[in-house]
Write a structure and sequence with these properties.
The protein contains 16 helices and 18 strands. It has three domains: 59 residues, no CATH class; 100 residues, no CATH class; 268 residues, P-loop containing nucleotide triphosphate hydrolases (Rossmann fold, 3-Layer(aba) Sandwich), CATH 3.40.50. A hairpin with a 4-residue loop joins strand 15 and strand 16. The strands form five sheets. An eight-stranded mixed β-sheet has the order 11-10-12-13-9-14-15-16, sandwiched between helices. A four-stranded antiparallel β-sheet has the order 1-2-4-3, with helices on one face. A two-stranded antiparallel ribbon has the order 5-8. It has 561 residues and is an alpha/beta fold.
Length: 561
């Protein structure tokens, strides 16, 4: 039996339903405007009828007869008088319209409690916005707050949610320290535990204070609608970016504004540094980046310094070259990554000289993800070995041209252990978890225009891409699917995004099988030899094939399918 197609309103998805709701709402509003006078008169007639019924019920029984006779006589007189019925109808409609009018009191100003709160805030700003030399100060003790405050709004608890402050022109609003003092004071006086947005208008000498709604935490890892080279770091406020992505939030479809990080040869911020505290969501950010890179056909190298096994779900997956958590394995892996970057540069340069496109293996993105690498550096130093982070200089400096991207996640307490190359070449920065304003400024290079709160959910923080503005950020929930304490729905979402297992390595279950040989190949055959000088060929001849064994997996988890 042939299956009948779904109705069109169901097959088109939520778009048709939303359009139908908008049309119905528009029609209802138009009908309300047209029939508003009739609704008012009908409500007034109901009020008059209720008043008449109450009056009749309150009349004693011995007086109801005379009252009924008197009413009938009045009706008879009005019926005999010229234009009497018409005047009676007009009078009745006017009385009904008067009694049926909207009697909701219009609020014209703040309440007594709100006025007291605005006055206290005004008095608190007097020492900051006034000087003794001002003959007519805008802020003065005992002054009127309504001359400086406008556009105020309050929530149900009586706390300020929106306020516009006009300050004198001599206030040093161009100095970060002066602005920070005002923002700290407003944050304390307007109510802690909320995040405020401060919009300074230096030209108009005005400051707009707005309470921001919390960012959504129900967006889990999912296939985002992005092109290759675009990575979704998280989601931010709708007014901060000009793009939205269709996502599922707690199972419901919606459009969310993302923070897009673009990588590749044309990127101005090819590498990223994420900083946070324990439990802030830095590992979740790395997992989210790894899943998106694998979704677009990239290759991933993971070096985990914590040794907690949070990346065990990626071990042995297609596209994951290695997952290392020991100093020796990390050293071998990063050394291979440095030589692979050099090999890609040489192969691409040879192809350009020969007038051919770059080889396919040099254009496939390679992602190097390091979680807490300072721990491995400390262990290597304690064992008397070399620092594994030394080999990051080549991928960091030349990774953009070789399609190599480096992502480093570190904690605040160990930032001094990162070398200068990491700080110089990671121009995309992310700060996660609770942090002081000065810490955020030191990492991002610019103070956020919002007040950080002490209690934030995992994955909540700030992001800045290069020299752009600072955005609020909520990382998609990407927990370890093997963590029983995580949300079951979020764990299932991550499990569905994991690529399939690759074939076991010939070296046994204790080794990680790489997706490609871990060695440096000789440069391609020389092309256009006559056009090149001997010195350039001698430089390429110095690079020989250097075989390197696949580094052993040192994680505490089983490896293999």
């Amino acid at each position: 039996m042939a299956r009948r197609p779904l109705p069109r309103i169901l097959s088109n998805g939520t778009t048709s339903l939303a359009r139908g709701r908008d049309l119905a709402r528009t029609a209802a509003d138009s009908a309300t405007d047209v029939f508003h006078p009739l609704l008012v008169i009908g409500r007034g007639l109901r009020v008059l009828a209720s008043a008449g019924r109450r009056k009749w019920a309150g009349t004693p029984k011995d007086k109801r007869g005379p009252a009924l006779f008197l009413g009938a006589a009045c009706v008879l007189v009005l019926a005999l008088v010229p234009y009497g019925p018409l005047l009676t109808l007009v009078t009745l409609m006017a009385a009904a319209a008067w009694h049926g009018r909207d009697r909701t009191p219009v609020r014209t100003g703040p309440s007594e409690a709100e006025t007291e709160r605005l006055g206290a805030l005004y008095e608190a700003l007097v020492p900051y916005f006034s000087i003794p030399e001002d003959p007519n100060p805008l802020f003065a003790h005992g002054g009127e707050w309504d001359t400086a405050f406008s556009g105020y709004a309050f929530d149900e608890a009586g706390r300020i949610t929106r306020l516009r402050i006009r300050y004198p022109a001599y206030f040093t609003d161009g100095e970060a320290a002066s602005r920070a003092r005002i923002e700290t004071l407003l944050h304390a006086k307007s109510g802690r535990g909320r995040e405020y947005l401060f919009d300074w208008d230096e030209e108009g000498n005005q400051l707009d204070l707005t309470v921001l709604a919390p960012l959504p935490t129900g967006i889990a890892a999912q296939p985002f609608v992005t092109s290759p080279g675009e990575t979704v770091l998280g989601f931010t406020d709708a007014t901060a970016v000009q793009r939205t992505l269709p996502v599922l939030e707690d199972g419901e479809p919606r459009d969310a504004p993302p923070v897009i990080w673009r990588t590749g040869p044309r990127s101005t911020e090819p590498h990223l540094l994420a900083v946070g505290r324990p439990g802030s969501g830095a590992s979740s950010l790395l997992r989210s980046i790894a899943l998106q890179a694998l979704h677009h056909g990239g290759e991933v190298l993971i070096v985990e310094g914590g040794g907690s096994g949070e990346f065990a779900c990626l071990s042995g997956r297609t596209g994951v070259l290695a997952v290392e958590c020991g100093p020796a394995g990390a050293l071998a892996t990063l050394e291979w990554a440095a030589r692979e970057t050099e090999r890609r540069l040489i192969a691409a340069h040879r192809a350009r000289e020969a007038g051919r496109p770059a080889p396919e293996d040099t254009r496939r993105p390679l992602w190097i993800l390091l979680d807490r690498p300072s721990v491995l550096a400390h262990l290597a130093t304690a064992e008397g070995g070399p620092d594994p982070l030394v080999h990051l200089q080549v991928p960091l400096r030349h990774g953009r041209a070789a399609h190599v991207t480096v992502v480093v996640a570190e904690q605040f307490d160990h930032l001094e252990l990162l070398n200068d190359a990491v700080w110089q070449h990671t121009r995309a920065r992310v700060v996660l978890g609770p942090a002081a304003a000065q810490q955020i400024t030191d990492v991002l290079g610019l103070a956020p225009n919002t007040t950080p709160t002490a209690q934030v959910p995992p994955g909540r923080g700030y992001a800045r891409l290069g020299s752009g503005p600072v955005h609020r950020l909520q990382v998609p929930a990407t927990p370890d699917p093997y963590d029983d304490a995580a949300h079951p729905g979020h764990r299932q979402a991550v499990q569905e995004l994991l690529p399939g297992r690759q074939l076991p390595s010939p070296g046994g279950p204790g080794r990680v099988a790489l997706a490609k040989p871990l060695h440096i190949v000789h440069p391609p055959a020389r092309a256009q030899e006559d056009s090149l000088d001997d010195e350039e060929f001698e430089a390429y001849d110095d690079i020989e094939e250097v075989p390197a064994e696949t580094p052993p997996a040192r994680g505490p988890w089983p490896v293999g399918p």
